[in-house]
Structures are given as C-alpha cells and as structure tokens.
Automatic annotation (TrEMBL):
Residues 234-281 form the PucR C-terminal helix-turn-helix domain. InterPro entries: Homeodomain-like_sf (IPR009057), PucR_C-HTH_dom (IPR025736), PucR_C-HTH_sf (IPR042070). Pfam families: HTH_30 (PF13556). This is PucR C-terminal helix-turn-helix domain-containing protein.
Amino acid sequence: MNIQQLIANYPGTLYKKIPFQPERGTIYFYNKPYYIAIPLEKLTDRERILIETLLSEETPPNYSPASQYWYDLLINDHAFNHTDENRKIRIIYFHLNLPLNNADRLEWHDALKGFFDSNTSFVYLSSQRGFIVEQTVLLSEGELDAIANTLANDFTVKCSFQIGLRHTVSPQLKQIFVEELHLFEKTIAKANVKNVTCVESELFSLLKPHLNKYSTLEDIRKIIAEDDTWVTIIHAIWEYQENISLAAKHLYMHRNTLQYRMDKFYEATGISLRKMDGLTIAYMSSL
C-alpha cells in the first residue's frame, strides 16, 4: 500500500508504526508496517466496503495499567525508570496465522490469559500478534507447546510462540526487545514453523551460515550426513547438557554404548563431544 497516496486521497488520515488510539469517527486497521486511521467522512460507502474487504479492521489498543507500562517502555519510547532496574523479566512473543473475528478474539484473549499467573502482562500489537511479559512464574517450552495445541483445537487458528531470554529491566531492554522481535518475525516468515521456538535456537541458526563457509568442517558434515544416527546422538547430548547418563536414557542406549559412539566420533572427526566447544561445533554442523 502506498501510504502517501492514501493520505492524498483521504486527508486527515493518521498513520504510525506503533499501535495508537484513533479518534472517533475513523476506521482503524493494520497494514504492515503501519497502523492507519482513516476518517469515515472521507470515505464513500463503496470505498469503505472495499477497504474492509481488503484489510482487517483492528480493535484500538486498550491496555491494563501493567500492560500499558510495558507498551510505553518497549514500544512508545518512554523513559526508563531506574526504580525498576532490579526486576527480571522474560518476554514471550506470539503470532496467529489468521485473524479472528471480534467475538472469538476476545474469547481467545481470555483463554490465553488463563494459562498464566496473575503477575503476567499481555500487550496486543494487532489482532494477530503481541507479546507476554513474565515476571515470576516462567512456563516451560513443553507447557507453551501444550497451550498452542489447545488454542488451535479450540479456535482453529495456529499460534506460534517464541520464548525470549531472561533479562534485567534496564535502559538496554528496548533494544533487546527489538532484536528478539526481529528474530521472531524472521522465524514466522518460514514455512512449517514449530509451535514454540526459543531465542537461543534462532541465534544458533543465524550463526550456522558462517560455519558453512569453512572447509575445515566439510568432513564433519559429510560424516553426519552419511549416518543420521549422529544427529540424534549429538542432539541428545546437547539437550541434556553433556549429562551422558540422561542422554543415554533418552536414546534408549546403554551409557557405555553411548561413550563408545562418542569415542568413534572423535576418532573420525577429531572433535570431542565431551567438551562444550566440540559439542557446539558438532551440534551446529548437524542443523
């Protein structure tokens, strides 16, 4: 959409890159990257029907005091309050693959809220996306995956979540938020996105192309490609943080058998899966 042409055709049109409260007597919608409010008096009935057909009308933001605080700090560029600098939070980003009608959207919001504790804040940026600020109780990746499945069954739309890292509230939080949100937007643009992704995993995926440039790792990639059991083994050791006993249990493998396979990998590649540096290189080579 050509925003300048829209303004020329409909004087009084307001647009911003952040959600805002439009004036009464306007039609408010989101067309990436802009939130737009067009005065109804400037539209013919035919033009209004056309706009409503092409674009999803948005509900103007209406935040609780707690959510308004996070909106102001992370979106609206309000000054950081140093009395908050000892607080730690985690942000979960979410996106719906399809918009819901107003009634279903309100019901979806209530259903989502019911899975979290009372200290959690919800900031909706549009009818399809927003973020959640956790302060005390942090849900696990498995719990979020179950929530996504439940919501999909109840409302027939898919919700994707990205779990951010744990951060101290500080003047740097706004930039951290922007970077994590950018990672999430890149993730949901891909096909077959998982219900739940994590910032640390997405950062790893950004590093992989840099590793692929090195011929030094070519033999390692070939060994892993020729025997796909290496992927399962390496990922199990990675997931269980080098705890061989837990990794072996996950693989339904005797601990001594797993250690034998790790020794064989070292003989073939020169990389030790017992060392974090070696395990990291092997893990990234297997992605």
